Amino acid sequence: MVGREKELSIHFVPGSCRLVEEEVNLPSRRVLITGATGLLGRAVYKEFKQNNWHAFGCGFRRARPKFEQVNLLDSEAVHHIIHDFQPHVIVHCAAERRPDVVENQPDAASQLNVDASGNLAKEAALIGAFLIYISSDYVFDGTNPPYREEDVPSPLNLYGKTKLEGEKAVLENNLGAAVLRIPVLYGEVEKLDESAVTVMFDKVQFSNKSANMDHWQQRFPTHVKDVATVCRQLAEKRMLDPSIKGTFHWSGNEQMTKYEMACAIADAFNLPSSHLRPVSTWRFVLFCFIYLFKKWFFFFNAYSLLREHERGRDRDGGMQNPKQAPGSERSAQSPLRGSSPLTVRSGTEPKLDTQLTEPPSTWHFKTSLVESPDLSR
Ligand SMILES: NC(=O)c1ccc[n+]([C@@H]2O[C@H](COP(=O)([O-])OP(=O)(O)OC[C@H]3O[C@@H](n4cnc5c(N)ncnc54)[C@H](OP(=O)(O)O)[C@@H]3O)[C@@H](O)[C@H]2O)c1
């Protein structure tokens, strides 16, 4: 059945301008997309709209004028929007996905990635909507790829932990929901730093400056348009078959290092790539060694200073030297703080299995295979 809705449009003819109210047909299948202003959400919204779905996009800071502004932390607003729109499907793309922001604002990130996801799942269950929760390969530690859906996650950083907790919150609150884990994304960006792939463009374009690029961690850069198609096909399949639920992995099938991605970008824009330097494993290990040595040396010096200060304080009968003490504390802490991101990032980047010849329980298909997907599980 097709619904109808009144639409206002402005008609221009030479010499006059009229406001016209028309009844328009609306597709009967309704999808609500959270994070529709983001890198993936924009593609998901477009994909559903172009395939005869009535798509309703929500954003937050960038929502107006195209999308509805809904703060997912406001559970009352979420309740109203879902009950007013009555979607058949919800694709939940909104998240805090920048690992450094998650580390710096853990409570805010957890509220969005975990609590808001659980609440959305609960609301979806109340009206019988199918929820697709977008998750990440960061739920794995990357030590033993490729990963299958049944492998036990073990996130290294806080971002990965919140995405995993988000998965659990969704599946606990909505038994029929789906979790779709995907790797690093690229696509049309509003700013280069929207994607870990396009952000490399700066290093590529300034060819007068040599740039060291990681050439040992294998990644599977995945285009947002393909993930959007996967979401739509998953939703359409589910409308025919209620047994479609649970956890799915999907990624592009090209395996590349950052160096190879940067060369591909240079190629695509007809730019030189001779200034890009591949950094291989042994060079990376050497780099880490020098880095850690420097940090240790710095830490050791700071520690000696601190000890010296402590001795001085003991000598002064517990009185702090106001000039020395705060400085020594800062020096003693900063190497530790500085080294933690390295511990997180130095491991192999997690990646998902992209093989097509997997057991039937896994669900993969090629980036280019968008016409006739095999969604059989
Ligand atoms: N990017 C990647 O490489 C990658 C890789 C694997 C998995 N993922 C996952 O894919 C999903 C989409 O990622 P993305 O790269 O598209 O993210 P993104 O570009 O950073 O977009 C984040 C979205 O969340 C919205 N948002 C933030 N706070 C909100 C709030 N309080 N209420 C409502 N909406 C809020 C933002 O809206 P405004 O901008 O309007 O504020 C934006 O639309 C995420 O779940 C992410 O974890 C991403």
From TrEMBL:
A GO biological process of this protein is: one-carbon metabolic process
Q: Where is the composition biased (Polar residues)?
A: 330-346
Q: Which UniProt keywords apply?
A: NADP, One-carbon metabolism
Q: Provide the RmlD-like substrate binding domain boundaries.
A: 30-284
**Per its UniProt record, what CDD domains does this chain match?**
dTDP_HR_like_SDR_e
What pathway, per the record?
Answer: Amino-acid biosynthesis; S-adenosyl-L-methionine biosynthesis; S-adenosyl-L-methionine from L-methionine: step 1/1
A Pfam family of the record is RmlD_sub_bind
Concerning InterPro entries, the annotation shows: dTDP_dehydrorham_reduct, NAD(P)-bd_dom_sf, RmlD-like-bd
Q: One Gene Ontology cellular component annotation?
A: nucleus
One of the entry's Gene Ontology molecular-function terms is: methionine adenosyltransferase regulator activity
For the region Disordered, what residue ranges are annotated? 311-377
Keyword match NADP: yes
Query: How does this polypeptide assemble, per the annotation?
Result: Heterotrimer; composed of a catalytic MAT2A homodimer that binds one regulatory MAT2B chain. Heterohexamer; composed of a central, catalytic MAT2A homotetramer flanked on either side by a regulatory MAT2B chain. NADP binding increases the affinity for MAT2A.
Q: What does this protein do?
A: Regulatory subunit of S-adenosylmethionine synthetase 2, an enzyme that catalyzes the formation of S-adenosylmethionine from methionine and ATP. Regulates MAT2A catalytic activity by changing its kinetic properties, increasing its affinity for L-methionine. Can bind NADP (in vitro).
User: Which family does this protein fall into?
Assistant: Belongs to the dTDP-4-dehydrorhamnose reductase family. MAT2B subfamily.
Q: What's the protein here called? A: Methionine adenosyltransferase 2 subunit beta
What is the native source organism of this protein?
Panthera leo
Upper taxonomic lineage = Eukaryota, Metazoa, Chordata, Craniata, Vertebrata
